[in-house]
Amino acid sequence: xxxxxxxxxxxxxxxxxxxxxxxxxxxxxxxxxxxxxxxxxxxxxxxxxxxxxxxxxxxxxxxxxxxxxxxxxxxxxxxxxxxxxxxxxxxxxxxxxxxxxxxxxxxxxxxxxxxxxxxxxxxxxxxxxxxxxxxxxxxxxxxxxxxxxxxxxxxxxxxxxxxxxxxxxxxxxxxxxxxxxxxxxxxxxxxxxx
Length: 194
Description:
The chain is mainly α. The chain has helices at 2-5, 14-26, 30-42, 51-61, 66-73, 76-83, 88-91, 100-108, 111-115, 124-131, 137-151, 155-165, 171-178, 183-192. The chain folds into two domains: 1-46; 47-192, Leucine-rich Repeat Variant. The termini are far apart.
């Protein structure tokens, strides 16, 4: 449905498309949100630095769980960070936000730029450090997922990070981070975690 109706708005300009997206988000219905996040991603070539404040508002106002967080942050919002890596400084305060999905977003938003190899100055380990002992298991899984993705591009760095933190890193995050590490190295890391 999203692809079918997008041609009706695609030539209206970034501001208009994002305004229509926000109207859909205000409906607070899952189906409308999926379309809104997809349309926001489809206009990625027109993002500017000013798009950040719109997307951050959406994250804090409309996202209410891990599914919405992951959909939005691994596509539209992640693409925006891929275009403007220096905006990572705006992500860091999310690690202390009262809502768990905003804290999870601090990790998940880095996944898209890393996968697309457009994370020149992004530091996933800084975010992992800040979320290390979060009280919500979905935040722990979120930064574990981030580290798992990083391991596909820089396995040695993730292994070194896990070795450094093996005695105090929560097991759930540790296990997620290990998933793509080759079996032999994974076994050594798992046996060394207390």
